[in-house]
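Please produce the structure of this protein holding flavin-adenine dinucleotide.
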Amino acid sequence: MSRAKIAVIGAGVNGLSCAVNIIENIPNAEVTVLADKFSPHTTGDVAAGVFGPRPLSFGHTDVSLQRSWFESSLKHFESLLRTEYAGIIGLEYLTGYFLSHDPSKDMNKALPWADLVYNAHLLSKKELDLFPGYKSGICFTTIVCDCRKYLPWLMDRFKRNGGKVVEKKVERMGELNGHYDVIVNCTGIGAKQLVGDTSMQPGRGQAIRVSAPWIKNFILTDTHPETYILPGPYDVYLGGTFQVGNWNVEVDKIDKQTIQEKCFQVVPSLKHAKFLHDWVGLRPVRPTVRLEKEIMNVGNAKLKVVHNYGHGAKGVAYSWGCSQQATRLVKEILSDSTQHSKL
Ligand SMILES: Cc1cc2nc3c(=O)[nH]c(=O)nc-3n(C[C@H](O)[C@H](O)[C@H](O)COP(=O)(O)OP(=O)(O)OC[C@H]3O[C@@H](n4cnc5c(N)ncnc54)[C@H](O)[C@@H]3O)c2cc1C
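Below is the modeled complex.
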């Protein structure tokens, strides 16, 4: 039997999750990752990587679908956290606070998936007193994934399974015609150009990484832009911005100053943290995540494509669940093709 040839375009957290899932679950598949950027230059490398069940950028994607992606991904990361490799993969459990200035804020609605993370509870008055000015809040434990470690680990797992990698920019989908049985499109914001998806927009995020080993809990607030202070396995992440439509990948001094002021207001001791890096990334924002099959007409040929892009601010937290679904779609296409070839 000939091997199914599958191309995954994109080496971000969604592309590599798909590549690993496909190569490990579709027997005899020959899988190639094609991408023009790799870690540490993908969007995930800039991400906080927190499994925060915040409503932010839910968009119009069916909420039960999003919940299932979140839950499947959480289970995957939980199982990795139980292995000896958790530190190498950049994973940790982290406890912290989501805070609001609004006393009437319904925190159960603000965190609709609080049941999926751990030990979520509304803050008592005594706990709220720790954060002067805030009127309501919730405390929970969740998972943080530092993609600067996770992506190289995924890539290594893919290669150990026989996966191939080609560094190249795919200018047109038609270039791949005749070379692959199925193409999985995980190009993030690149989908705007590659498949002409005009609904794609950048959600520009700027953040700062500092060394502040005394910070042990995360703090997220519902201010606009959101403030987040997030101690990861290697440093503390201070954010951030979410500027839809802004393509600027340079560090903006005013954004930096605003992030610092807001974070220092919540935790004044951060003024003495050692500065490490500024980070800017473009979240792939779309009204809905695009996770579906498409038969694309390219000249006289038909390309069989599975799209998996447009995860906005949730790309890390949904990555494993979405890649499992994308793998099921690839299997469906391959089995349809086999049935047709038998007719
Ligand atoms: C500041 C910030 C904070 C964030 N925080 C979180 C968080 O806490 N939790 C969370 O879940 N998410 C977070 N996100 C969102 C998350 O980072 C993204 O949703 C996710 O990384 C998107 O991954 P991706 O693989 O879809 O796309 P990308 O990482 O953008 O990867 C796209 C890949 O496709 C390749 N590509 C594109 N076009 C082409 C082409 N034509 N030819 C060849 N290759 C191509 C690129 O080279 C790249 O390899 C954050 C993002 C930012 C910017």
